[in-house]
Amino acid sequence: MAERYSSFEKGGRRWLWQRITAAFLVVVLAFHFFLLHFVNHADEVSFLASSARMTDLTYYSLMVLFLITATFHGVNGVYNALENQGLSGTKKRVVKYTLIAASVVLVVQGIRTANAWAGLPTF
Amino acid sequence: MSQSYDRGLVEDFGRWREFSAGMWAWVFHKFTGWVLVGYLFTHIAVLSTAISAAGQTQAIAAENDVYTTVIVALESLLVVRILEVGLLAVAVFHILNGCRLLLVDLGVGLESQDKSFYASLILTGAIVVASVPTFLAGVF
User: Fold this and answer.
1) Which chain A residues touch B if contact means CB-CB below 8 Å?
2) Measured torsion, CA atoms of residues B81, B97, B125, A66, in degrees rounded to the nearest 10
3) Can you tell me the ipTM of this complex?
4) Which of A46, A73, B67, B118 fits A21 for a cystine, CB–CB 3.0-4.6 Å?
5) CATH number, domain containing residue A45
6) Where in this chain does the entry annotate a coiled-coil region (chain B) (predicted)?
7) Distance CA B85, CA B90 (A)
């Protein structure tokens, strides 16, 4: 039998969630790039244009979900990569809670930004 | 029955000349992943100027609010456009190799995993080269 070689903890669910978010991100990241570079152009960006997209509830929901899944996928990937490099003990716990705190800040700030375009409270 | 190969550790980067295609795919996927997560934080930080702009009704209508001004100023720089092409390359490779990883995890096409890595590289190159005119439009 092949020996086990993986970047992920044995028996963990983080591997599965990394794959589930990946399947979603493959489609939405491609859509994001296509919409904001090929349909709309970089030199035509304005608050009004961003706002027009974000006031559409479907687009707003998709972008918030995109933000949350991308944050999870990115931060979980970093954590797994560090674990794979041998991170353990107290350092691992410090990294874990730092990454969780950074994720919360990123998601909150991203939602505040989306709300600014959508005309919703930025709290 | 699956076979076991002792290729040594991919983390031991000093022996990169001995790396197989799958090991390079692993290295590139990690590298592009680090770049993308770093960019995600930067991206939200820059876009956050929209929060300050939100109340400036007149400036928004005149398109000289802080968000529009910052983005337009950044997009007018050639170096930013070149970095965006780099970001596209990184994102496209991560997406294509990610699809390859999903297939590998499902046990699909395992015997061609090296070929699918080369295909990811070639397709990334083709998409990036074809996108250069769009990404540089309006900067000159």
Assistant:
1) 1-3, 19, 22-23, 25-26, 29-30, 33, 37-38, 41-48, 50-51, 67, 70-71, 74-75, 77-78, 81, 84-85, 102, 106, 109-110, 112-113, 116-117, 119, 122
2) -30
3) 0.90
4) A73
5) 1.20.1300
6) none
7) 9
CA A74 vs. chain centroid, Å, equals: 6
Number of domains in chain B: 1
A74 vs B33: CB contact, 8 Å cut-off?
yes
Asked whether residue B86 is assigned to any structural domain, the reply reads yes
Q: Which two tokens stand for residue A97?
A: 């809670």
Q: What is the pLDDT of residues B18-72, one digit of tens each?
A: 888 888 998 999 999 999 999 999 999 999 999 999 989 999 999 999 999 999 9
